[in-house]
Input
Amino acid sequence: MKLTSKLWLGIGILVILSPLGLLLPEYFKAGDAWGEWGPDTLKELVGYIPQGFEKLSGLWNAPLPDYVFKGWEESGLGGLSIAYIASAVIGILITVTVILLLGRVLSKKD
Amino acid sequence: MHIPDGYLGPATSGAMYAVMLPIWALASRMVKKTLKARQVPLLAISAAFSFVIMMFNVPIPGGTTGHAVGAVLAAILLGPWAACIAVTVALVVQALLFGDGGITAIGANCFNMAFVEVFAGYYLYKLISGKSSAASGRRVVAAGIAGYLALNIAAFTAALLFGIQPLLYKTAGGQTLYCPYGLNVTIPMMLGEHLLVFGWVEALITALVVKYLQKQDPALIASGKEG
Output
């Protein structure tokens, strides 16, 4: 097998394993990354929601917020894991497409 | 380390975009000069790796989570300018599509992970590798140390951006407008968790992949030869 094929296979394995990034924090009762809290958690932590934060935090409505389909948030760890894998696939496809387009513009023939 | 919208004030976010624009422009110029068409698949793989490895949130039991970035690996394989572009694309897709990192903070997040980590990691790797041969074990160690330190340096610059907010923005009543924690909190928190846990994850993945690639195609990790 060509090396690039092996590496893509490796990426594929990581995609399938990616729900570990969801399940392990759940299992070990770890919360958000430091400094990435939503408004509710921030209010619990500091006692108020900073005014500027309140204005900006909802600025962007991502189509797949937190790597979950909208409406799937309560679908249990199984559903969340499926959404997580699907998000990884979608995210990687878009990332790779952008890089290949950029690569066409930016690279030179050997 | 993906700073969300609302934690940085407009001046900070704007300044970080202003810092990144010339870096992105220069990265495009440098890549155009050096990137060969046959390296493009590796660039895509590096970006994909960075994207997916950031989804592996590693828990600190009962505490926070964090993750590796894969930026140092990209820098070793493709040089810092191409790596900057690879990680930038991954971060922009994460922000726009998944709300992971704010859109106002894309400049700041790219500064930390696609610039600071990439360049710190690249030069640390080069420095520690020295003149060792591409197949040398020293390069695996160099990759690990560079991964560990570079992620921590990036966590430090992220902590600085978080921590200066209370100095810059306060209401008359003393409440902060954006990130509520000052440098006295952000630096020990961000550095502490990355020094203790997440830095080791970056070290491990960088060293393991470099070790694997050494066996497959040592030329790939003789990084830096052409700059």
